Amino acid sequence: MTAPITIASLCHDFQDFRALHDIDLEIAAGEYIVLLGPSGCGKTTLLSILGGFIVPTQGAVKIGGRDMTGVAPAKRPTTTMFQDYALFPHMTLRDNVAFGLRMRGMARRERHARAERLLELVGLHGDAGKRPHELSGGQRQRVALARALAVEPDVLLLDEPLGALDLKLRRTMQDELKSLQREFGTTFIHVTHDQEEAMAIADRIVVMNRGRIEDVGPPTRVYQRPASLFAANFMGETNRLPATRGEHGLETPFGHLAPPQALIGDGPFTVCLRPEQIRSGTEGWALGSARVGDSAFFGTHFRCHLHCEDEAATTLIAHLPPEVQPQPGARLALSVDPAQLSVFAAEEVSS
Amino acid sequence: MRRLQWGYLLLAFAFIYLPVASLVLFSFKDGSLPLPPFEGPTLRWYGEVLGDRRLMAALGHSLMVAVGSSLTACVLGFLAAYGLARHVLPGSLWLRGLLIAPMTVSYLIVGLGLLIVFNQLGIGLSLWAAGIGHVVINLPLCFAIIYASMGAQQQNIERAARDLGAGEARVITLVTVPMLAPAILAAFFLAMTLSWDEFVIAFLLTRFEVTLPVEIWSLLRSGLSSKTNAIGSIVFLGSAAIVLLLELFIFGRRRP
Questions:
Q1: Which of A103, A264, B57, B161 has the smallest CB count inside 10 Å?
Q2: Domain limits at A90?
Q3: First CA to last CA across chain B, in angstroms?
Q4: What is the DSSP letter of B101?
Q5: A94-120: per-residue pLDDT in tens?
Q6: Is B149 within a domain?
Q7: Exposure b/e, B28-48, CB count within 10 A at least 16 = b
Q8: Residues of B with CB below 8 A from A52's CB?
Q9: Do A169 and A255 fall into the same domain?
Q10: What pTM was computed for the model?
Q11: Which of A229, A248, A269 is the C-terminal boundary of a domain?
Q12: Which of the residues A88, A118, A154 would you substitute to probe the B interface, choosing the one with the greatest number of B C-beta atoms within 10 Å?
């Protein structure tokens, strides 16, 4: 089961603090949406509003075309997977997973059969009689997922579901979440502050900051063409160059640049370069020569600090391909493809 | 050094258990005064105690009052804790303080207060009155123990149950109470031992039907007797059994 969601001009205040400003978002049925942002950006508040745990100060939420703004969690076609899993400690895994079906009045034998099928699906075959405290973190996470999916919700809400797991397990669980979502077709809304996790699983990423949506789009677009300076910074490492409006375009420490996009406002501007966009060579927009500071090998690339010989003595971070073999102290000629750059109105950004 | 440590340990336990041990020992003495030298042993006094209808009636009353008042205190304490832990109420800090404060009032004062109130209201002295008195002293304790076990983790678990379609009654009966069972049982048994041993309130608020401690006190007025030792041993056995059960089935199980 699955359903689309419409969020219309949603605002929420906690006393004097405005946690959400005018959120508008359309989510298609069966989409995997990731709400991404730093702590305090309002992503969890938005999830709680979708789950019915918080009634918004203003605005409306529609799920499957029906207005759900003031409807209690139990009466919504949503289930939430909580950050601490919130399993029932006194029940077996079977009873945990079957709880929602029991609340819907399903007979014991039928609901136990269904619970066991779901436990098998998440790889916990034969553990149905155990209790939550006998499981590892990853296994508890799977039980929580099975319990939430057992009632066949239209929308599954996941509150930082992978936060408590170690890195390797997190990668495995990301793949599993994605494939389960494909299998069930349920709309998934997943909250995280980890941009790599967001890129790995999302159909669309919603980048949030200070209660507003900064950018919405598929991972590649949000990474390569972020809609705001905040989104550019949050999605990964960037080099930020100060720029002003000149006679024929932008003036930067590296000289003149024909703006890759139409400029809004009079400036000053910030030009964003991703580390992997910097090449050694002279094609495209030349950045002049630079001395390699330190460089670290990451398997797929070298991450280098490059000290440029421009007027501002800029230091750039670049990911250079292994065949360049950048040795500390070596001199390189640098360039970028201007079409890949993003330009924003300058503002103070804390990264 | 090692000997000193063992010696200290023995002294400490002797200090705690000598009175009880001598009480139990002289309950087996063949002779009417529970004083040295020891003669016997005999089970004569236990036979007399078990054959004494007044004492046996008092034992029954004590059990009734203990179980009834502890159950009531636990139910009320749970409801108060659930309300205060799960809902934002105006002045909840004050409410919590007011609920716990009676713990600091001496039983004598509580008993006197109840005596005055019951007299004013024209409620006669009875086991019911003593039971109400025991609810008054045990409610703060039950509330404090159960409230302390209701953390944010438990609250999230209740939210999950609601999210999966459970109404308020089913959240409490299927999730909250079973989840907090260790704390609730601990509160219940603790309240039971306190009520079982309680003398002052029971003495002030009962008249014709009395609890065991009150009956023992009236026995003592006619002088020391090995019979009182026997009944004292039985009471001690009862309390010790409850504590042991508590340790075995509740506190013991909590450590996995």
A1: A264
A2: 5-229
A3: 36
A4: G
A5: 999 999 999 998 888 999 999 998 898
A6: yes
A7: bbeeeebeeeeeeeeebbbee
A8: 163
A9: no
A10: 0.78
A11: A229
A12: A88
